[in-house]
Amino acid sequence: MTRRLLAAMSGWGKSWYAQLLFETNLPKFDLVAIFDYKDEYRGLVKAGLANHYIVGEREKAWSVDDWETFFESNPKVVLARHRLKPEEWQEVTASAVQALRNLAGPSRSALAGVDEAHFVAPQSGKIPDAIEGLATTGRGEGASSMWITQRLAKLDETVGSQCDERIVGGFSGDRDRGKIDPEYPEDVHNPQARSIARLPEELRVDGENLPLRRFEENGSTIGSEWVYSNNKGEMERRDTRDLSMETTHYGPEGHPIHDPN
Ligand SMILES: Nc1ncnc2c1ncn2[C@@H]1O[C@H](COP(=O)(O)OP(=O)(O)OP(=O)(O)O)[C@@H](O)[C@H]1O
Ligand SMILES: [Mg+2]
């Protein structure tokens, strides 16, 4: 099993990248649950890779057993949050994650993808055992996980530090950047940095020490850069403009506020 962290400031392209990773991994796992806080991953459903299920008041009352029964008939599913408050979503996620972990084992691989993970595993307050267990249980755990967040400073530190693979983009705030604690100069994650420390060869762009960049066209993000690193000491600079996705990503872009001319 693997635990992967996907973190960057808002709008950097985490959910886009996460969807591509889900698209790639859905066929490879026996059980997949995507905890879709903002209802963005429907494109995976449209492409026939997963079922879609809206999680609201009724599902709030489901026990771990109920979730196990549910996953038996919906082994790959996008679970969209509907009108549940963050604390309610956290509780539902905990029960569903426990069910997924119970079903996973040597002969059944499972993947839990948690977007807006700082609501499910917040740094402040206690986090449910099922969630903590997903992030911390060692080699025996059958369930892999992907934690997606824009607020590293608000994500439970144990969860963040347990991830054995990290894909981290830009962060404008130093509080979030301070949590990355990388083995390379941290200011590569500051998109506003004018000049940054000498980077290891793998992280340079054509030999140049540049901070991570986000690329826009007509005000819309068309790609962004990331540092992939893992516990084996490997690292790589990635540019999502080099990647293409089969499914459609329905991002909540929001509406821009216009200034008068
Ligand atoms: N490589 C890419 N190619 C095309 N569009 C992209 C790419 N990366 C990001 N985008 C687009 O940029 C917008 C922002 O991306 P996304 O929603 O993934 O950001 P995010 O980091 O998850 O933000 P938030 O923290 O607010 O959820 C989306 O409309 C998304 O489709
Ligand atoms: Mg997102």
From TrEMBL:
Residues 166-190, 233-261 are annotated as: Disordered. It comes from the Archaea. InterPro entries: P-loop_NTPase (IPR027417). Keywords: ATP-binding, Nucleotide-binding. Residues 166-189, 233-244 have a biased composition (Basic and acidic residues). The keyword Nucleotide-binding applies. GO terms for molecular function: ATP binding. This is ATP-binding protein. The lineage of its organism: Archaea, Methanobacteriati, Methanobacteriota, Stenosarchaea group, Halobacteria.
